[in-house]
Amino acid sequence: MARRRHLLVAALVLALVVNAVWACADATPSPPSVPSPRWILVSGSVPGLVDAGLPKSELDNLDSPSTLMLVRNVDAHSDLNDATPTLNFRSATDLATALSTGQVPDSMHWLLLDLEAWSLTPIPEQRDPIGALRRAEDVAHRYGKSVIFAPAISLMNVLAPGLSGDALYQAFIDRLVTPGAAIADGFEIQAQRTEATEYATSFVTAAVAAAHTANPGSAPVLVGVSTNPNGRQVTADDMVEVYNAAKIAGATGYWLNIPGSGAECPNCGEPRYRVAVEFLQKISSSPS
Fold it and tell me: Using CA atoms, how far apart are residues 188 and 116, in angstroms rounded to an integer?
């Protein structure tokens, strides 16, 4: 009788151990603890900022894991040693291919999806950017990654050609910000084209509010500023105007663009690093 009880107890313990093992195997792994992005910078722009006179204190402010450093390959070097290397994809197809072929290291949590009406984004994805985002997120989540969606306002030339002014910006909010922010792990509003225009504050205020409403959780909402959006000459004060409006509206981070001529911006001319330095100094010295 005692031997039978021992066998029953042993069987019960074995069953509990097996169930625990299966429970652990089926559990969804917890996402890694990563800081919410506060800045996005292209890796190659950092030396230009330093050469243009960016004070060390400002450089130290950027040298943080909450700065996403956009790199072309995972081995790229940056002057910001503590920044987080991040790959920037111009199509959901490229993002999925990079993940499935092992081009994205395990340590890289954030991926940027920058869809625009340009040759770098496939036409089908320009016509259905939200569908492209869904596909990108499905693949990214299977690999434990998170996607920041950064659709350009130029996509409206494909989705609703002929719009301008208030109608254009409202359509962008309705067609891209609201549905995109609702499903993205993070959302970046490319507001730089409004710098030095009558929409500089009204658009970013409405877009940030729409993104937060669509995803009221902790998903980051970032806003882009540029030293020369599509080649237009703007001042540091023009950039600060957009930055301040975004900050008041509740933006959690910013993408500092310092473009130069190339496939991504044929009209941009030389990078305007001094304007970027002036911008960073102005926002640093302004009241919190």
Answer: 13
